[in-house]
Amino acid sequence: PSENQIKGRQYPLEAHFVHANEDGELAVISVMFDAGDQNAALSKLINAIPQENQTTFFKDTFEINDLLPKTANYYRFNGSLTTPPCSEGVRWFVLKDTQTLSKDQAAKLMEVMGQNNRPLQP
């Protein structure tokens, strides 16, 4: 599930795109995925997930923009990374518009990643 909420709502999936500049300052673009139609871009990623103890590489090109909504309206706040060491000073950009993923896609991701979300922080 999502680690951020929009208007009090948690989503089935939240993707983080983490960026760092030369000074080590961090920014995260966050995209929420809601239950709906199958997402073709997400399918490419899911199909490339390696089996346990296996390495895999993308054979085709992948457009990261295909995972982003068409509009870039966002909420902005200062926070931290959501994984250890949970470093502070991260600029967050949570996109207001969502993408979709199918129930099957959500199940496949849950199978691989489990429920790895950090609890909501005050």
TrEMBL record:
PROSITE patterns: ALPHA_CA_1, ALPHA_CA_2. The keyword S-adenosyl-L-methionine does not apply. Its cofactor is Zn(2+). It holds the Pfam family Carb_anhydrase. Keywords: Lyase, Metal-binding, Zinc. InterPro entries: Alpha_CA_prokaryot-like, CA_dom, CA_dom_sf, Carbonic_anhydrase_a-class, Carbonic_anhydrase_a-class_CS. GO terms for molecular function: carbonate dehydratase activity; zinc ion binding. It catalyses: hydrogencarbonate + H(+) = CO2 + H2O. Residues 1-122 form the Alpha-carbonic anhydrase domain. It comes from the Bacteria. Belongs to the alpha-carbonic anhydrase family. Reversible hydration of carbon dioxide. This is Carbonic anhydrase. It comes from Vibrio parahaemolyticus.
